[in-house]
Amino acid sequence: MSLKSMEKATFAAGCFWRIEAAFREVEGVISTRVGYTGGSTPNPSYEEVCTGRTGHAEAVEITYHPQIVSYEQMLEIFWNIHDPTTSNRQGPDIGTQYRSAIFYHNKKQKEIALSCLHKLQESGKSKPIVTEIEPASEFYPAEDYHQQYFEKMGMCSSGKCGWK
What we know:
- The chain is α+β, with helices and mostly antiparallel strands.
- It contains five helices and eight strands.
- The chain has a six-stranded mixed β-sheet, with helices on one face.
- Strand 6, helix 4 and strand 7 form a beta-alpha-beta unit.
- Helix 3 (about 70-80) packs across helix 4.
- The longest helix has 16 residues, at about 105-120.
- The protein is globular, with a radius of gyration of 15 Å.
């Protein structure tokens, strides 16, 4: 697999540790990194993002092979690992950094994300979706101790965190 055939996807869906753990289990995902995006403060720290004043969301940037896992499949996982109907909150985590957002990297991703959001909304199975769909902007990797956090803390066995 050449790097040219890889694509990126960037999602925010609450605490980035959990999002990263879920996507690391997906066949076709080459790499993940957690970080901050969608705000205005350059190169923010975790502490700055937690103040809510940077505008950034905790997010995961995923490099994947689209011949193995499609963007649609990635979105299906995204919708299922969090509650896209809660604004600035996922479980006990509250704040704008925990918002639900899809940061698209190209026109095709934008179209697919909007279509999937519309289908989910029209299914009648859900309250109104509050997920933001925005162009991907500068992604600032989080501090090293946040990367692959669950694996580092021994919270995954054999690299699996059980999010599937």
